Amino acid sequence: MAAKTLTIDGQLVSAEEGQTVLDAARDAGIHIPTLCHLNGIQDIGACRLCLVEITGSPKLLPACVTKVQEGMEVQTSSDRLRRYRRMILELLLAERNHVCSVCVSNGHCELQTLAAEHGIDHVRFEYLSPRLEVDLSHRLFGMDHNRCILCTRCVRACWHVEGAGTKNVAGRGIQSRIISDLNQPWGQSETCTACGKCVAACPTGALFNRGATVAEMQRDRTRLEYIVTAREKSQWIV
Amino acid sequence: MLLADLIRIKEQELAGRKPFVLRVCMAAGCVSSNAEAVLAALDRAVKDAGLESQIEVRPVGCLRLCCEGPLVAADPDGKLYKKVSPEDAVSVVKALQGEPAPVRTGDLREPFFEKQFSIVLGNSGLIDPERIESYIAADGYIALRNVLRDMSPADVISAITKSGLRGRGGAGYPTGLKWSTVAKTKSTRKFVVCNGDEGDPGAFMDRSVLESDPHRVIEGMIIAGYAVGAQQGFIYVRAEYPLAIKRLQTAIKQARQFGLLGSNVLESPFSFNIDIRIGAGAFVCGEETALMASIEGLRGNPRPRPPFPAESGLFGEPTLINNVETFANVPPIILQGPEWYASIGTEKSKGTKVFALAGKITRTGLIEVPMGIKLREIVEEIGGGAPEGAKIKAVQTGGPSGGCIPASELDTPVDYESLTKLGSIMGSGGMIVMDDTTNMVDVARFFMDFCVDESCGKCIPCRAGTVQMHRLLTKILNRQATESDLKTLAELCELVRSTSLCGLGQTAPNPVLSTLRFFRSEYIELLQPTKPSPECASTAEKKGAPADNKQVDGR
User: Fold this and answer.
1) Does any domain span residue A238?
2) What are B354's strand-pairing partners?
3) Protein fold of B140-342
4) Which of residues 285 through 314 in chain B touch A, CB cutoff 8 A?
5) What's the pTM?
6) Of the candidates A47, A77, A107, which is a domain's last residue?
7) Least CB-CB distance to B456: which of A60, A62, A173?
């Protein structure tokens, strides 16, 4: 494969053909914030945090699904992009009930980390404060819809890696929910293999191991490596 | 079937014509006001009078003046009977023999009709949409025959390019360029998709075309399939259009029987099939990537472009996707030549556009006008202006993706660029006229309400951003908002427009942005003064009160 040379934030970067701008940036040590991206799982460009400016393109493009091109000039952190990212994070924080102090993922949460990174000390939008359920019907795992940001990493891990097809999205717009099977309690799912990949994939405290209490839910992210390499190396952990 | 057969069918059909024809509108609008009973009553009245050999009662597609339905047009005297009831049938038949008609009578030479220019609707209201012979008699499928006999796929694409036709779904992408991209993408399997998922509030152009002249769309798709090298087509129609679906099914069945669809179309080596896919009620499925996901049987979510459908579309194969009206333009372009088509309209917007004229206006209905016509001509001459005592305030085009054009800009020509300059869009063709009793903030909130409901929820700016904008608009309408809320609203508009994944989100702020631009004073009037003053006390008391639109409107 031919190598491509591009400029990211003024820095000359070489990348493999077919690589995404996000991968090329990360290889070069340039940080682009993401939430719906997870190594090894198909990218969908949904969270809009990795939007970058590309010279010559009138629209902002998501770095996770945009392929590198020779001579491309990429801006990853202009004032405008930083302002948009902050607003997107504020929208997420106002959408459901992200109360860090009583969350299992406090201190280990990607949303929390990004909010801190972007200096979010208040949210200017009205909190929607929906009343959402917590599904504790599964013997090993729990799902707290109050913490869900609908990144669908769990859905994609379940479908494309585990191949169980348990997790899915129901409803639309602000009413969207992650469901198990045909909107049954998770514990009654006949397809769930209890592999835990969805829990490992979740960026917030929405999916957790049962029994975890506030701030205890430290994810074993090393397990995620298997999501990337297991198939190539035939190392199945379950 | 060969050309000779087509001509034979046409001649037979024309030879069977009777001296008098009563054309009864059987499009959804008139059907909903009892046109089926009118049709049956007219049939009976003709039979009772023993005039079957003289008078043909023909069910036809849309006769356009929807506000006056059920409509019956009489040939050859050019009369248009309005609001016809089954009891009027006898007098309508008698009127054909010269007796005065007691029914509300109009004329097909009224300004509503005279100002129009028909290409897409050329057969609408003239032919029987459920009989392929009726379409063939109007030179139907001759364009297809010419294409298969005389033209190479490259010739067809070059004709479409030369005609200057642009996508009628709203964005106005050059159709020839799209066709040529799909044709050049190498693959053994390609698809042609017709987007009939019309969902803008107040828009019914595509429905009318499908109900009035389904064969035209099918013919356009077959020609497109030949041009780009596809063998399979899909028509995606929303489930809310049962009559359009039924007529399409009938039309596809007839086209198969006549050898116009299936293997070896018109005994040529080219094969093409069309299947119908019915939407399940999501507005976002009108967005092309979501539409294709829906055809594939997946959740109707959009995906980022590129890759564009022309490169990787349905089932990952190169796909040509055009709107109903775009395909309906194809046969006339082939028959009458691209130069003829390019001579109509403006420099950059060629041909005609069909609009669904609705709202606070004297005459509502379906219209087709040449590009470049002034909005004023549409509103005042075709539409007859505002009803008595009212004044036109704005015209909304493009539905929830469009904007409100103020009355002061009515001299704008209707073309893609001019409407975009005003912060609106051509859109698929909904045109809603508003009078001076309309509160523009309320209008913006109505469309935002629609977007909140129809957002798919995949990307956060559209999913949560529209909800926050809706809340701010409600707060403004309730007179609880301040200057800083208006600033936040503007910032949200910018965010949602710049960062949303698909067209639905990217254009969702347009109704707000355009009303902020032209009717800013209406927003300002509803704001709370920044510094509390003594007179403010009364407003503060109302703070907790629920939304009272009457109070707002009566301001």
Assistant:
1) no
2) B368
3) Rossmann fold (3.40.50)
4) 299, 303-304
5) 0.91
6) A77
7) A173
